[in-house]
């Protein structure tokens, strides 16, 4: 409203009204504005003072509450500490009281002991006096006896000792002889009883290994695929595995022949996978055989672990477990080595338990006694000594090492477990039908035949086939040409004639195969 009035007055002034009236109104408006401004400033100051006062009171209240809270916590803490101090003081007082009581008891006991010591001293003095009196009487009587007998005390004692010694020796000799005779008779009976009980309680079947495995097939149509065009598949399989594959008129069966059980197993599994897959050709055969060889290594470890679990043997070194698994594919005089070792372990454990010895150590030694036969490196040491060295290498117990090394009397037995393992080995091997020595000598002859050919330069692989009547040799085509292959066959046959004994004749076949391989990238 004031603005409108001001505008009107200004307009009047512009029309020629009085300038003084316009100035009056302007001053009046400025005064009102100044007063309004002062009032607003005063109002704001009052509000600020009230706000500051309120904040100050809130801060004071918060500080008081915090102080009271801290004071309460401090008082509570002090009260707890006072209570702890009072409790400890009470405990100390109780302990002091208990110590005082125990000291009084000790003083009473010391007084009683002093009294007993005095009584004992008096008794000892009385005994000493009586002893002196008895000694005087005894000496007097001895002197009287010496005069009557005409002998001194020492002479009489010596005669008496000699008489008693002779009598005791005579009786002791007779008694000792009776005891020895009875002990021998009893020991023989007891030993026979333990062995018989052990054999009866250990019922292990014997699996006599041979040189032939049978691979069963669903139909005879598969035989043609296995043979391949012009026999290339069967030749590739024989070259890769080192066994002889016999495909004849036997219905739904293929014969795998070879003296090495590992090679036969590799060939059998490879055939199984090839037949299942359906793709049978030389490249596929080599691929499958290589994979099967790796799988056999894994199976060997699994067999070793399963054997240890079955026998309850724990903590064997991984290499020893692998050797135990290899026993499954080895034979000793025609007897499966793993079955033989398992039986020896059970026999040794039973015999040790009957005799009150450590059955676990005996079982462990029985299982490991022939590990020297499965060591992959050729050694000139006897298998028992080699097995002992391997057991020492893998931190086996000294008694186990001695039992392994002494089970064929190569070293002296220093533990009771050693003769038990030796006896168990003899029991396992001497059962009717358990072993065939002809088989062992036959396998040894075939291995020697292969080793003889491998010593010639250029020979990559060598396999004894057809029960040792054929020696099949694979040579390096880059280093051996056709003429050298022919000469190599002649040289090997001549060396076999000179160095080996064998029935009939041995066919030496040298195979030189040239492969050209390139890659298209």
Automatic annotation (TrEMBL):
Which parts of the chain are coiled coil? 31-58, 92-137
Residues covered by the HD domain: 337-430
Q: To which protein family does this belong? A: Belongs to the RNase Y family.
Q: Which UniProt keywords apply?
A: Cell membrane, Coiled coil, Endonuclease, Hydrolase, Membrane, Nuclease, RNA-binding, Transmembrane, Transmembrane helix
Task: Give the enzyme's main class according to its UniProt record, as a single word.
Answer: hydrolase
Q: What is its EC number?
A: 3.1.-.-
Cited function: Endoribonuclease that initiates mRNA decay.
For the keyword Hydrolase, the answer is: yes
One GO process term, biological-process aspect: mRNA catabolic process
Q: Does the keyword section mention Membrane? A: yes
PANTHER family in alphabetical order = RIBONUCLEASE Y (PTHR12826)
Q: Name one Pfam family in it.
A: KH_1
Citing just one GO molecular function, the answer is: hydrolase activity
Lineage, opening ranks? Bacteria, Pseudomonadati, Bacteroidota, Cytophagia, Cytophagales
Protein name per UniProt: Ribonuclease Y
Taken from the UniProt entry, a GO cellular component term is: plasma membrane
Q: Which InterPro entries match?
A: HD/PDEase_dom, HD_domain, HDIG_dom, KH_dom, KH_dom_type_1, KH_dom_type_1_sf, Ribonuclease_Y, RNase_Y_N
């Amino acid at each position: 409203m004031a603005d409108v009035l001001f505008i009107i007055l200004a307009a009047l002034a512009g029309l020629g009204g009085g300038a003084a009236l316009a100035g009056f109104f302007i001053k009046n408006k400025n005064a009102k504005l100044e007063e309004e401004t002062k009032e607003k400033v005063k109002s704001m100051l009052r509000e600020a003072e009230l706000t500051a006062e309120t904040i100050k009171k809130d801060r004071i209240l918060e500080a008081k509450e915090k102080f009271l809270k801290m004071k309460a916590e401090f008082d509570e803490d002090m009260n707890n500490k006072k209570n702890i101090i009072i409790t400890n003081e009470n405990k100390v007082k109780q302990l002091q009281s208990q110590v005082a009581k125990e000291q009084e008891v000790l003083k009473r006991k010391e007084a009683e002991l002093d009294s007993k010591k005095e009584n004992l001293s008096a008794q000892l003095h009385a005994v000493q006096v009586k002893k002196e009196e008895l000694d005087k009487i005894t000496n007097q009587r001895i002197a009287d006896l010496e005069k009557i007998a005409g002998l001194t005390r020492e002479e009489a004692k010596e005669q008496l000792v000699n008489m008693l010694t002779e009598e005791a020796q005579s009786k002791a000799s007779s008694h000792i002889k009776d005891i020895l005779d009875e002990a021998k008779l009893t020991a023989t009976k007891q030993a026979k009883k333990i062995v018989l009980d052990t054999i009866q309680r250990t019922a292990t079947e014997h699996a006599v290994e041979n040189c032939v495995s049978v691979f069963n097939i669903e139909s005879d149509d598969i035989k043609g695929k296995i043979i391949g065009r012009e026999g290339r598949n069967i030749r590739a399989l024989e070259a890769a595995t080192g066994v002889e594959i016999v495909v004849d008129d036997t219905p739904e069966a293929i014969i795998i022949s070879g003296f090495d059980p590992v090679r036969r197993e590799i060939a059998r599994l490879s055939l199984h996978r090839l037949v299942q897959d359906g793709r049978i050709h030389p490249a596929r055969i080599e691929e499958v055989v290589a994979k099967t060889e790796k799988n056999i290594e894994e199976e060997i470890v699994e067999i070793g672990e399963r054997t240890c679990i079955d026998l309850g043997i724990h903590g064997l070194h991984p290499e020893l477990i692998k050797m135990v698994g290899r026993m499954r594919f080895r034979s000793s005089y025609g007897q499966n080595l793993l079955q033989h070792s398992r039986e020896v372990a059970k026999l040794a454990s039973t015999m040790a338990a009957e005799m009150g010895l450590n059955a676990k150590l005996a079982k462990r030694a029985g299982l490991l006694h022939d590990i020297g036969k499965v060591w992959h490196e050729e050694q000139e040491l006897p298998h028992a000594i080699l097995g002992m060295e391997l057991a020492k290498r893998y931190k086996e117990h000294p008694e186990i090492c001695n039992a392994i090394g002494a089970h064929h009397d190569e070293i002296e037995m220093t533990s009771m477990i050693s003769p038990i393992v030796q006896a168990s080995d003899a029991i396992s091997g001497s059962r009717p039908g358990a072993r065939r020595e002809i088989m062992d000598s036959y396998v040894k002859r075939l291995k020697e035949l292969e080793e003889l050919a491998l010593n010639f330069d250029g020979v990559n692989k060598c396999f004894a086939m057809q029960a040792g009547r054929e020696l099949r040799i694979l040579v390096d085509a880059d280093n051996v040409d056709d003429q050298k292959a022919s000469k190599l066959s002649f040289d090997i046959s001549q060396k076999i004639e000179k160095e080996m004994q064998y029935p009939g004749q041995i066919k030496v076949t040298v195979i030189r195969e040239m492969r050209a391989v390139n890659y298209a990238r």
